[in-house]
Amino acid sequence: MTKISYKISVPVILAGFFAVVAFLALDYKNINFSFYILLLFIAIYVFFFGFATGQRFASPVKKLLDRATEMSKGNLSTRVYLETKDEIAELAKVFNKLAGDLEESRNKEESTEKSVDIKVKAKTQGLEETINALEQKVQNRTIELQRVIGDLNKFKEEAITKDSEVVRLKEDVQKLEKRVKNRAPQKPVKNKQIKPKNPKKTNVAELKKIAEDLEALQKQTKEREEKTEELISEIRKIKEPG
Predict the structure, then answer these.
(1) 169 Cβ partners below 8 Å, 6+ apart?
(2) Is 30 helix (H, G, I), strand (E, B) or coil?
(3) 3-state helix/strand/coil string of 79-110
(4) 186: which DSSP letter?
(5) How many angstroms separate the CA atoms of 32 and 37, rounded?
(6) Least packed by Cβ within 10 Å: which of 62, 123, 170, 177?
(7) Residue 5 in domain
(8) Cα dist. 242→136, 137, 219 in Å?
(9) b/e for 117-136, b at 16 or more Cβ within 10 A?
(10) Domain count of the chain?
(11) In whole angstroms, what is the distance from residue 217 CA to residue 38 CA?
(12) Would you say the pTM of this structure is higher than 0.90?
């Protein structure tokens, strides 16, 4: 800002000195010592007058420039108030209006951002609660499916065990049936009592019935095992994502 002050004060001072020198040149023969002293005071006055004039014009401009620098750094609340009524004062009014518009625009922007942030946080919180609830349901369903699969696997193992027992019993029955068939027939006892039924035929019929029941049980066990496999396959498909 010193440059502006110099640009204003130096021409004023030079003009003053030029006027004094011109006045001396017009009547330099009649000038006495007292007049030289007067000219010295006039020269000093011209110097300070020029310097003061430069400061007067430079001070408002410097003030305006300082406020503009503050506004460029983000301080939109800064204002410039000048007591003069010249063009610089009009420029200060325009600057104040511009700063006020920018401050109002920034306040509206901040208010909008806060409102948007609040809405986004509210929606995000609702989505997080929904996601947490779904995750909890998925975990509960997974635990339930794992328990069902465990029970089905246990049932499958039990079915396999029963199937092996049925096969073993069938083999024992077949062995027992062969032994009965290979047993030697007993001689009948002659008496007047009623003849009892043939134990051999009775045992064979009972063994056949037992064998048929075992075969039926084995068939039911196989059917139950197949149904169990189908159920396990369906549950695993449900458990798989997507």
Answers:
(1) 214
(2) coil
(3) CCCCCCCCHHHHHHHHHHHHHHHHHHHHHHHH
(4) P
(5) 9
(6) 123
(7) yes
(8) 18, 16, 37
(9) eeeeeeeeeeeeeeeeeeee
(10) 1
(11) 145
(12) no
CA separation for the pair 92, 103 (Å, rounded): 16
Structure token pair of residue 58: 């430079």
pLDDT in tens, 134-175: 888 888 888 888 887 887 788 778 778 777 777 777 777 777
> Tens of pLDDT along 16-63?
777 777 766 666 666 676 777 777 787 788 778 777 777 777 777 778
**Residue span of the structural domain in which 21 resides:** 1-73
Burial class, 54, CB count within 10 angstroms (exposed 0-12 / middle 13-18 / buried 19+): buried
Single out the residue of 41, 39, 52 nearest to residue 13, CA to CA.
52
d(CA 110, CA 116): 10
Establish if 11 belongs to a structural domain: yes
Q: Which of 176, 165, 182, 185 is nearest to 206 (CA)?
A: 176
210-226 in b/e form (b: 16+ CB < 10 A) is bbeebeebbeebeeebe
Judge whether 41 lies within some domain. yes
Answer whether residue 27 is part of any domain. Answer: yes
